[in-house]
Design a protein that fits this description.
This protein is of the alpha+beta class. The protein contains nine helices and twelve strands. The chain folds into three domains: 79 residues, Helix Hairpins; 78 residues, Sandwich (HSP40/DNAj peptide-binding domain), CATH 2.60.260.20; 89 residues, HSP40/DNAj peptide-binding domain, CATH 2.60.260.20.
Length: 312
Protein backbone atom coordinates (compact mmCIF):
# COMPACT_ATOMS: atom_id res chain seq x y z
CA UNK A 1 0.00 0.00 0.00
CA UNK A 2 1.34 3.41 -0.98
CA UNK A 3 1.24 6.56 1.14
CA UNK A 4 -1.11 9.34 -0.06
CA UNK A 5 -0.28 13.01 0.50
CA UNK A 6 -3.73 14.55 0.87
CA UNK A 7 -2.31 18.08 1.03
CA UNK A 8 -0.56 17.59 -2.30
CA UNK A 9 -3.74 16.15 -3.84
CA UNK A 10 -5.71 19.29 -2.90
CA UNK A 11 -2.79 21.61 -3.64
CA UNK A 12 -2.74 23.22 -0.19
CA UNK A 13 -0.04 23.70 2.43
CA UNK A 14 0.13 21.61 5.58
CA UNK A 15 -0.92 24.62 7.68
CA UNK A 16 -3.90 25.46 5.46
CA UNK A 17 -7.00 26.77 7.21
CA UNK A 18 -10.41 25.11 7.08
CA UNK A 19 -11.55 27.74 4.56
CA UNK A 20 -8.54 27.24 2.28
CA UNK A 21 -9.12 23.50 2.23
CA UNK A 22 -12.79 23.92 1.43
CA UNK A 23 -12.08 26.36 -1.43
CA UNK A 24 -9.41 24.11 -2.92
CA UNK A 25 -11.75 21.14 -2.81
CA UNK A 26 -14.63 22.99 -4.47
CA UNK A 27 -12.38 24.25 -7.25
CA UNK A 28 -10.93 20.82 -8.01
CA UNK A 29 -14.29 19.05 -7.63
CA UNK A 30 -15.80 21.33 -10.29
CA UNK A 31 -12.84 20.74 -12.59
CA UNK A 32 -12.86 16.95 -12.35
CA UNK A 33 -16.54 16.13 -11.84
CA UNK A 34 -17.20 13.19 -14.19
CA UNK A 35 -20.43 14.74 -15.50
CA UNK A 36 -18.68 17.83 -16.85
CA UNK A 37 -14.94 17.17 -17.09
CA UNK A 38 -13.27 16.12 -20.31
CA UNK A 39 -10.08 15.04 -18.51
CA UNK A 40 -9.29 11.37 -19.27
CA UNK A 41 -8.75 10.53 -15.60
CA UNK A 42 -11.60 12.70 -14.27
CA UNK A 43 -13.44 9.99 -12.36
CA UNK A 44 -10.31 8.73 -10.59
CA UNK A 45 -9.15 12.26 -9.76
CA UNK A 46 -12.61 13.24 -8.49
CA UNK A 47 -12.63 10.24 -6.16
CA UNK A 48 -9.10 11.02 -4.94
CA UNK A 49 -10.00 14.65 -4.28
CA UNK A 50 -13.07 13.59 -2.31
CA UNK A 51 -10.97 11.22 -0.23
CA UNK A 52 -8.42 13.92 0.60
CA UNK A 53 -11.17 16.34 1.55
CA UNK A 54 -12.89 13.75 3.79
CA UNK A 55 -9.71 13.66 5.88
CA UNK A 56 -8.54 17.28 5.85
CA UNK A 57 -11.97 18.86 6.48
CA UNK A 58 -12.28 16.86 9.72
CA UNK A 59 -10.01 18.20 12.51
CA UNK A 60 -9.92 14.80 14.19
CA UNK A 61 -8.90 12.84 11.11
CA UNK A 62 -6.49 15.56 10.05
CA UNK A 63 -4.56 15.62 13.33
CA UNK A 64 -4.24 11.83 13.33
CA UNK A 65 -3.19 11.80 9.65
CA UNK A 66 -0.58 14.53 10.27
CA UNK A 67 1.03 12.56 13.09
CA UNK A 68 0.97 9.31 11.16
CA UNK A 69 2.44 10.87 8.03
CA UNK A 70 5.49 12.52 9.56
CA UNK A 71 8.48 11.50 7.48
CA UNK A 72 6.38 9.60 4.92
CA UNK A 73 6.58 10.46 1.20
CA UNK A 74 3.89 10.19 -1.49
CA UNK A 75 3.97 6.93 -3.40
CA UNK A 76 6.29 5.07 -1.02
CA UNK A 77 5.25 1.76 0.50
CA UNK A 78 3.51 2.41 3.78
CA UNK A 79 1.86 0.35 6.53
CA UNK A 80 0.31 2.01 9.60
CA UNK A 81 2.10 0.79 12.73
CA UNK A 82 -0.02 -1.17 15.22
CA UNK A 83 -1.85 1.05 17.69
CA UNK A 84 -0.91 4.22 15.78
CA UNK A 85 -4.23 5.90 16.68
CA UNK A 86 -3.81 5.35 20.43
CA UNK A 87 -4.02 8.49 22.56
CA UNK A 88 -6.40 10.47 20.31
CA UNK A 89 -9.89 11.35 21.52
CA UNK A 90 -12.57 11.40 18.83
CA UNK A 91 -16.24 12.33 18.79
CA UNK A 92 -17.86 9.10 17.69
CA UNK A 93 -14.86 7.39 16.09
CA UNK A 94 -13.10 7.62 12.76
CA UNK A 95 -15.75 6.30 10.40
CA UNK A 96 -18.85 7.68 8.74
CA UNK A 97 -17.31 9.19 5.59
CA UNK A 98 -17.70 6.38 3.09
CA UNK A 99 -14.52 4.46 3.84
CA UNK A 100 -15.77 1.65 1.61
CA UNK A 101 -15.74 3.87 -1.49
CA UNK A 102 -12.23 5.26 -1.00
CA UNK A 103 -8.77 3.72 -1.36
CA UNK A 104 -7.22 0.93 0.68
CA UNK A 105 -5.00 3.60 2.25
CA UNK A 106 -8.04 5.48 3.58
CA UNK A 107 -9.72 2.24 4.67
CA UNK A 108 -6.63 1.13 6.62
CA UNK A 109 -6.60 4.40 8.57
CA UNK A 110 -10.25 5.37 8.98
CA UNK A 111 -12.36 2.33 8.10
CA UNK A 112 -14.59 0.52 10.55
CA UNK A 113 -15.81 3.66 12.29
CA UNK A 114 -18.19 3.65 15.19
CA UNK A 115 -21.77 4.83 14.97
CA UNK A 116 -22.25 8.56 15.44
CA UNK A 117 -25.04 10.10 17.49
CA UNK A 118 -28.19 11.06 15.62
CA UNK A 119 -30.94 11.80 18.07
CA UNK A 120 -33.01 14.67 19.44
CA UNK A 121 -33.36 18.17 18.06
CA UNK A 122 -30.53 20.65 17.75
CA UNK A 123 -31.35 22.70 20.87
CA UNK A 124 -31.94 19.82 23.26
CA UNK A 125 -29.84 16.72 22.89
CA UNK A 126 -27.48 14.62 24.96
CA UNK A 127 -23.77 15.11 24.38
CA UNK A 128 -22.03 12.87 21.89
CA UNK A 129 -20.09 9.91 23.10
CA UNK A 130 -16.35 10.20 22.56
CA UNK A 131 -13.92 7.37 21.79
CA UNK A 132 -10.20 6.82 22.20
CA UNK A 133 -7.78 3.92 22.05
CA UNK A 134 -5.30 3.46 24.89
CA UNK A 135 -2.27 1.20 25.22
CA UNK A 136 -1.86 -0.66 28.49
CA UNK A 137 0.59 -3.26 29.73
CA UNK A 138 -0.28 -6.93 30.08
CA UNK A 139 0.63 -6.63 33.74
CA UNK A 140 -2.02 -3.94 34.27
CA UNK A 141 -4.65 -6.20 32.73
CA UNK A 142 -3.50 -9.18 34.80
CA UNK A 143 -3.45 -7.39 38.16
CA UNK A 144 -5.83 -4.46 37.54
CA UNK A 145 -4.51 -0.92 38.03
CA UNK A 146 -5.24 2.78 38.20
CA UNK A 147 -3.32 4.81 35.65
CA UNK A 148 -3.11 8.44 34.55
CA UNK A 149 -3.58 8.75 30.79
CA UNK A 150 -3.21 11.75 28.52
CA UNK A 151 -5.35 12.10 25.41
CA UNK A 152 -4.85 14.43 22.46
CA UNK A 153 -8.09 16.23 21.62
CA UNK A 154 -8.19 17.84 18.14
CA UNK A 155 -9.90 21.25 18.00
CA UNK A 156 -10.45 24.00 15.44
CA UNK A 157 -9.26 27.55 16.24
CA UNK A 158 -11.45 30.58 15.39
CA UNK A 159 -9.26 31.35 12.36
CA UNK A 160 -9.71 27.84 10.95
CA UNK A 161 -6.44 26.16 11.97
CA UNK A 162 -6.29 22.76 13.62
CA UNK A 163 -4.62 22.30 16.97
CA UNK A 164 -4.70 19.80 19.82
CA UNK A 165 -5.20 20.18 23.54
CA UNK A 166 -4.20 17.62 26.12
CA UNK A 167 -6.67 16.01 28.46
CA UNK A 168 -5.49 14.04 31.50
CA UNK A 169 -7.66 11.44 33.20
CA UNK A 170 -7.31 8.89 36.00
CA UNK A 171 -8.52 5.54 34.68
CA UNK A 172 -9.25 2.34 36.59
CA UNK A 173 -8.17 -0.64 34.49
CA UNK A 174 -10.32 -3.65 35.37
CA UNK A 175 -8.55 -6.88 36.20
CA UNK A 176 -8.60 -9.22 33.21
CA UNK A 177 -9.69 -6.72 30.56
CA UNK A 178 -8.92 -8.09 27.11
CA UNK A 179 -7.70 -6.36 23.98
CA UNK A 180 -10.56 -4.74 22.09
CA UNK A 181 -12.75 -4.33 25.16
CA UNK A 182 -13.72 -0.84 26.31
CA UNK A 183 -13.66 1.11 29.54
CA UNK A 184 -16.64 3.48 29.90
CA UNK A 185 -16.15 6.82 31.65
CA UNK A 186 -19.66 8.14 32.25
CA UNK A 187 -20.19 11.83 31.51
CA UNK A 188 -16.69 12.35 30.09
CA UNK A 189 -17.82 12.80 26.48
CA UNK A 190 -19.14 15.98 24.87
CA UNK A 191 -21.43 18.21 26.97
CA UNK A 192 -25.14 18.10 26.20
CA UNK A 193 -27.27 21.07 25.20
CA UNK A 194 -30.50 22.39 26.66
CA UNK A 195 -29.86 20.76 30.03
CA UNK A 196 -29.29 17.31 28.53
CA UNK A 197 -26.56 15.06 30.03
CA UNK A 198 -23.02 14.82 28.71
CA UNK A 199 -21.99 11.87 26.60
CA UNK A 200 -19.65 9.13 27.72
CA UNK A 201 -16.02 8.46 26.87
CA UNK A 202 -15.22 4.93 25.69
CA UNK A 203 -11.60 3.83 25.92
CA UNK A 204 -10.76 0.89 23.68
CA UNK A 205 -7.94 -1.19 25.15
CA UNK A 206 -4.92 -2.38 23.20
CA UNK A 207 -1.81 -4.01 24.65
CA UNK A 208 1.69 -2.63 24.50
CA UNK A 209 4.20 -5.03 22.91
CA UNK A 210 5.72 -7.26 25.60
CA UNK A 211 9.31 -8.43 25.62
CA UNK A 212 8.33 -11.98 26.62
CA UNK A 213 4.68 -12.67 25.92
CA UNK A 214 2.22 -12.47 23.06
CA UNK A 215 -1.54 -12.56 23.53
CA UNK A 216 -4.41 -14.31 21.76
CA UNK A 217 -7.70 -13.48 23.43
CA UNK A 218 -7.09 -14.32 27.09
CA UNK A 219 -4.33 -16.82 26.38
CA UNK A 220 -0.66 -15.93 26.83
CA UNK A 221 2.15 -17.43 24.75
CA UNK A 222 5.81 -17.66 25.71
CA UNK A 223 8.69 -19.08 23.68
CA UNK A 224 10.94 -21.06 26.05
CA UNK A 225 14.49 -21.92 24.93
CA UNK A 226 15.70 -25.34 26.11
CA UNK A 227 18.95 -27.28 25.65
CA UNK A 228 19.23 -30.61 23.80
CA UNK A 229 19.88 -32.44 27.06
CA UNK A 230 16.85 -30.87 28.72
CA UNK A 231 14.76 -31.99 25.76
CA UNK A 232 16.25 -35.49 25.69
CA UNK A 233 16.34 -36.25 29.40
CA UNK A 234 13.55 -34.06 30.72
CA UNK A 235 14.03 -31.28 33.24
CA UNK A 236 12.35 -28.91 35.67
CA UNK A 237 12.85 -25.24 34.78
CA UNK A 238 11.65 -21.85 36.03
CA UNK A 239 9.20 -20.22 33.61
CA UNK A 240 8.00 -16.60 33.81
CA UNK A 241 4.26 -15.93 33.92
CA UNK A 242 2.32 -12.72 34.50
CA UNK A 243 1.84 -13.88 38.08
CA UNK A 244 5.50 -14.68 38.71
CA UNK A 245 7.85 -17.57 37.97
CA UNK A 246 6.61 -21.15 38.25
CA UNK A 247 8.29 -24.56 37.96
CA UNK A 248 7.51 -26.37 34.71
CA UNK A 249 8.42 -29.96 33.91
CA UNK A 250 9.96 -30.48 30.47
CA UNK A 251 8.93 -34.00 29.40
CA UNK A 252 11.59 -36.51 28.42
CA UNK A 253 12.02 -36.56 24.65
CA UNK A 254 10.50 -33.08 24.15
CA UNK A 255 10.59 -31.61 20.65
CA UNK A 256 11.15 -28.09 19.40
CA UNK A 257 7.77 -26.45 18.78
CA UNK A 258 5.99 -28.58 21.36
CA UNK A 259 3.50 -26.66 23.52
CA UNK A 260 3.00 -27.07 27.25
CA UNK A 261 -0.21 -25.71 28.79
CA UNK A 262 -0.27 -23.87 32.10
CA UNK A 263 -3.96 -23.86 32.97
CA UNK A 264 -5.37 -20.58 34.28
CA UNK A 265 -2.09 -18.68 33.89
CA UNK A 266 -3.40 -16.35 31.19
CA UNK A 267 -5.51 -13.22 31.70
CA UNK A 268 -8.10 -13.44 34.47
CA UNK A 269 -11.71 -14.03 33.46
CA UNK A 270 -14.60 -16.46 33.61
CA UNK A 271 -12.99 -18.67 32.56
CA UNK A 272 -9.41 -17.43 32.89
CA UNK A 273 -7.06 -17.81 29.96
CA UNK A 274 -4.15 -20.23 29.87
CA UNK A 275 -0.45 -19.75 29.25
CA UNK A 276 1.15 -21.83 26.52
CA UNK A 277 4.88 -22.50 26.67
CA UNK A 278 6.32 -23.13 23.21
CA UNK A 279 9.57 -25.07 23.42
CA UNK A 280 12.48 -23.93 21.26
CA UNK A 281 15.49 -26.22 21.06
CA UNK A 282 18.77 -24.29 21.21
CA UNK A 283 21.80 -26.22 19.98
CA UNK A 284 25.18 -25.14 21.38
CA UNK A 285 27.87 -24.30 18.84
CA UNK A 286 31.07 -26.38 19.28
CA UNK A 287 33.91 -23.97 20.07
CA UNK A 288 36.71 -26.35 21.06
CA UNK A 289 38.05 -29.61 19.65
CA UNK A 290 36.61 -31.39 22.69
CA UNK A 291 33.15 -30.06 21.82
CA UNK A 292 33.38 -31.38 18.28
CA UNK A 293 34.58 -34.73 19.57
CA UNK A 294 31.54 -34.93 21.84
CA UNK A 295 29.17 -34.26 18.92
CA UNK A 296 30.88 -36.91 16.80
CA UNK A 297 30.63 -39.43 19.63
CA UNK A 298 26.90 -38.68 19.95
CA UNK A 299 26.47 -39.22 16.21
CA UNK A 300 28.16 -42.61 16.47
CA UNK A 301 26.37 -43.81 19.60
CA UNK A 302 22.90 -42.44 18.76
CA UNK A 303 22.53 -42.63 14.97
CA UNK A 304 19.43 -40.78 13.73
CA UNK A 305 18.04 -39.92 10.31
CA UNK A 306 15.54 -37.09 10.90
CA UNK A 307 14.78 -36.97 7.15
CA UNK A 308 13.78 -40.59 6.77
CA UNK A 309 10.17 -39.65 6.01
CA UNK A 310 11.34 -37.44 3.15
CA UNK A 311 13.12 -40.33 1.46
CA UNK A 312 10.16 -42.71 1.37
Amino acid sequence: MKFKDYYEILGVSKDATEGEIKRAYRKLARKYHPDVSKEPDAEARFKEIGEAYAVLKDPEKRVAYDQLGRGAHPGEEFTPPPGWEAGFEFSGGFGGDGAEQFSDFFESLFGGGRRRYAGAGFHERPGRDHHAKILISLEDSYHGATRTITLQVPTLTPDGHVQTRQRTLNVTIPKGIAEGQTIRLAGQGAPGSGGQPAGDLYLEVAFQPHRLFRVEGRDIYLELPITPWEAALGAKVKVPTLGGKVDVKIPRGAKSGQKLRLRGRGLPGRPAGDQYVELKLVTPVPRRPEDEALYRKMAEQMPLNPRAALEA
